[in-house]
Specification:
By secondary structure, the protein is α/β, with parallel strands linked by helices. It has one domain: NAD(P)-binding Rossmann-like Domain (Rossmann fold, 3-Layer(aba) Sandwich). 39% of the residues lie in helices and 19% in strands. The strands form two sheets. Strands 3-2-1-4-5-6-9 form a seven-stranded parallel β-sheet, sandwiched between helices. The chain has a two-stranded parallel sheet with strand order 7-8. Helix 2 links the parallel strand 4 and strand 5. Helix 1 packs across helix 5. The longest helix has 22 residues.
């Protein structure tokens, strides 16, 4: 029985991930780091409301086996690139360092399709840099999860993304075989894939593409 730490549990994937971890027989305890109350409770769930700017590295809630990082922001919410970098890069890496020092063995990060340190696009370059820096920390097992366009209900409205989602559902019907890599994916499917991938305990640094996430999600019992 393992202990999991979830970063970004208020987001689309993070919310689903909490429920999948609670259902999993592999985890006896789930610690959710969050800025505000999740408004859910369960005997296995420990909620820790924190300020990511002043984390206490001596806190026992960093004593975990597996780390799941679903944190992220948007240009609309965080227009300043330095602030954006703090959320999408610094928080995941800093927490990764602390948990590794406490004995964590596995780290799973929700990245993005197109993550590339050489990209001219700020978002893609940043995701690539975060993947690189987490992979270099020295975890026994590091997984970069690269989903395509995410489907599902978000707490905040994203107008441009909403339009793409309307187009994505009918287009998905034609994205088969190799084109499955570009198929829009539900947040709950990514969450199921995360739990399934964690159960594999593959050693080394791994990258999981969008089509592989569909396959892994199907292995997890509904």
């Amino acid at each position: 029985m393992k202990t999991a730490l979830v970063i970004g549990s208020n987001g689309l994937i993070g919310r689903h991930l909490l429920f999948e971890l609670i259902k999993s027989d592999r985890y006896s305890k789930i610690i959710a780091l969050t800025r505000k109350d999740l408004i859910i409770s369960h005997p296995k769930l420990q909620q820790e409301i924190v300020s990511y700017d002043s984390l206490d590295s001596s806190s026992t809630y960093f004593n975990v086996d597996d780390v799941f990082c679903c944190i992220g922001t948007t240009k609309a919410k965080t227009p300043n690139q330095n602030d954006y970098r703090k959320i999408d890069h610094d928080i995941p890496v800093n927490i990764g360092k602390i948990c590794l020092e406490k004995g964590a063995k596995q780290y799973l990060m929700v990245s993005s399709m197109g993550a590339d340190i050489n990209s001219s696009i700020f978002y893609s370059k940043l995701k690539g840099e975060t993947e690189r820096d987490l992979a270099n920390l020295g975890y026994s097992s590091f997984h970069a999860i690269r989903p395509s366009l995410l489907l599902g209900e978000r707490k905040e409205q994203r107008i441009g993304e909403s339009i793409f989602k309307l187009l994505a559902k009918p287009i998905n019907l034609f994205l088969m075989g190799p084109l499955k890599a570009y198929k829009a994916i539900e947040g709950i499917q990514v969450a199921k894939a995360l739990v399934a991938i964690a159960s594999l305990e593959k050693q080394g640094n791994q990258i999981w593409m969008n089509n592989q996430l569909f396959d892994q999600a199907e292995t997890l019992k509904k």
